[in-house]
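W.,

You were right to be curious about this one. When I first looked at the sequence I had no strong expectations either way, so I just let the prediction run and decided to look at it fresh. Below is the sequence, 325 residues in total, followed by the output.
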Amino acid sequence: MFRQIFKYNRKKLSFQHKYSICIITKILQYINVTNIDIQGEKVLVIIDNFSNSQELYKKTCKLTHDWKDVRFFSSKNKAYSWINQHKFFISDIYTDSDYGIMIALKHWKLPKKIKIHVYEEGVGTYLNSLLKERRKFRNILLKIYGKMTGNELKIGGNKRTKEVIVYNKNFYQENVIFDRPITISNFSNPFLIHLLKMNSLFNDINKEVLDISGANIFLYLTSWEIIEIEIMENFDAKIIKPHPHIKEKIHSLNKFDFVIPADIPAEILILHLLNNNNKLTIVSNFSTATLYFRKNINIKFIDINSENVDSYYISTFKKLVEQLS
């Protein structure tokens, strides 16, 4: 067995039970995986791949009514090694992605009796193909891999996957076509309603930020990298919210008045600011966190193109916004 980074909730799995394993690599995925109606006993597996993951581990270890056990691993490879060691205890695996050669190999090693479920992670889940326009040589290799294995190049495309769970089932079924039978399900509750129920898990937002009212606010939601943003207008407050996968703590950036902890969902921050009658200008890389606010008249959106998004992603993003309105 792999040595765990912490030793809070170590429990032995019993041969008398079969367990559902829920894998998360960032806090949004915890929000989503707790919004699935999973019967029986559940084990949470946290990958140390996001800001304040250790804090989430400590908090969830105390939620014994939700989880039979909570495990913490430094990488997905170590997590799946542990899963392989306990594969005869496991009935189901819930994960954010089944896409890629490495994850396919991990699932291929597991007994066929284990059911793989993939839950929505963002706009990428609604793409019918995850091939990137700019990566032509890589696309050729992936297409060869797809033909050889029979795996489709999309979320839910792995032959072992039995179910995809999303917030917008009708839109998903219209946009994502499979060559095999697969179950498409909705989460138990709408995203924003469930998010607000989870508020106690998140670190506190700076009180000064929560006290801002009736102001004109500039908010930058970063992607995996922080880029130089030119702020043209005068704003009452300038706020930066780093991407959850940016694990290094950012204490200050010269042109911003406030830095929000990376692990706080951007949706929570936006809701607080709107509830205080503020007007927002939000800059992002077509962030999924902005999906549910795109029709709000008190928000102006500035979208930045980057290598992370191509025209197909942007088109799907805009269609999904229309579906939500």
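Here's what jumped out at me. Residues 136-149 form the longest helix (14 residues). And, maybe more interesting for your project: The radius of gyration is 20 Å.

Coffee later to discuss?

I.
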